[in-house]
Specification:
Elements (H helix, E strand, L loop, with lengths): L5 H8 L17 E6 L6 H17 L2 E6 L6 H8 L7 E6 H5 L1 H4 L11 E10 L1 E5 L6 H10 L5 E4 L7 H11 L4 E4 L3 H10 L4 E5 H9 L4 E4 L27 E8 L4 H15 L2 H9 L2 E2 L5 H21 L6
Parallel strand pairs: 1-2, 1-3, 6-7, 6-8
Antiparallel strand pairs: 3-10, 4-10, 4-11, 5-8, 5-9
Helix pairs in contact: 2-10
Length: 322
């Protein structure tokens, strides 16, 4: 997928609203790091640019993406959890960071609730089961996997992630086995799938959009109730005879515990108002990114709801903390 820079984002999504500079000194023209828990080049870059540009426009400081991939997003989370709570270090956290990794790792190095101020959710993300183009359909892929267990492989960006658990669930539903090949981030996983070194993977649409359009990857199915406007040509799993197979991810912004409320409220307000711009929403839709419930309480409630759900799924899959 071609990278979307500041000029391209504004051209596609429309100019962000005029900033309303608050009277408090923060960020006072300083540079604020928004730590990204993934390698550059993936869907997190699209969402990261939306977040950093919105905050820069509305709050007056300079907000920059700081990629810190590794350890199923826990490396970035630990860094932010231990940062000074002064608003200068934020996290672009995900469903994996707060509802999967704490279950997959015996000692992730942070508490998903106590160590952070969950400022707000930012968006929902759509994913697609993509494959090397040699696989013409989902049925062909699964038939081959059933015929030769573990001869085919699927890529993920780590054990217990939103690329891993859906595949475990899916393979269990269809009675097939594939070899799991984990990578340190989505881009290298996708690179090997494009090259044919792995057969398939669950990928965020924002990351694989360009590859689908150019034919480097084949979209086989998507885990949503109905086909979204952004991905009209890829069937849902329900259409393929696998009902109730639905997964959506999410992104949010977090600050270290103890960050002053005056700062986190400004961040929440800037994102709530900025990302609600109709033209920004339209741009997000083209990337397979949907709106999410905004605000801190909604973010906390979702984590509290999904943690036990994912614990049950991991136990059903036979995964133990590493």
């Amino acid at each position: 997928m071609a990278k979307i820079g500041r000029r391209g984002l504004i051209a596609a999504g429309g100019a962000l609203a005029t900033p309303a500079l608050a009277q408090a000194p923060w960020p006072a023209g300083q540079t604020v790091a928004v730590v990204i828990p993934y390698a550059p080049g993936g869907a997190s870059d699209v969402i990261g640019r939306l977040v950093t540009q919105t905050l820069s426009e509305r709050l007056g400081g300079t907000f920059v993406m700081d990629h810190k991939p590794g350890a199923s997003t826990s490396l970035a989370a630990r860094l932010v959890a231990r940062a000074k709570p002064d608003g200068m270090t934020l996290l672009l956290g995900t469903i994996a960071t707060f509802t999967l990794t704490p279950l997959a790792l015996r000692n992730p190095g942070y508490d998903p609730l106590a160590d952070f101020v969950h400022v707000t959710q930012v968006c929902e993300t759509l994913s697609v089961l993509v494959a090397h183009p040699r696989w013409a359909s989902f049925e062909a892929l699964i038939a081959a996997a059933r015929a030769k267990p573990d001869a085919l492989s699927y890529a993920t960006w780590g054990v217990g992630t939103t690329a891993h658990l859906p595949m475990l669930d899916l393979l269990g539903r269809v009675g097939a086995e594939m070899l799991h090949v984990p990578y340190n981030g989505s881009p290298p996983a996708m690179t090997d799938t494009i090259a044919g070194r792995t057969d398939c993977m669950f990928a965020l649409y924002a990351a694989c959009k360009g590859h689908l359009e150019e034919g480097r990857l084949k979209g086989l199915a998507q885990p949503v109730p109905t086909r979204p406007a952004a991905i009209p040509d890829v069937p849902t799993f329900a259409e393929l005879g696998i009902p109730d197979f639905v997964y959506t991810g999410w992104y949010g912004v977090q600050a270290p515990a103890g960050t002053p409320r005056a700062i986190t409220e400004r961040i929440e307000r800037a994102l709530t108002e900025g990302l609600a711009e109709p033209r920004i929403q339209a741009f997000m839709a083209t990337q397979g990114i949907g709106p999410s419930a905004m605000g801190g309480p909604a973010a906390v409630a979702r984590i509290e709801r999904e943690l036990p759900q994912n614990r049950t799924l991991m136990q059903r899959a036979g995964l133990s903390p590493e």
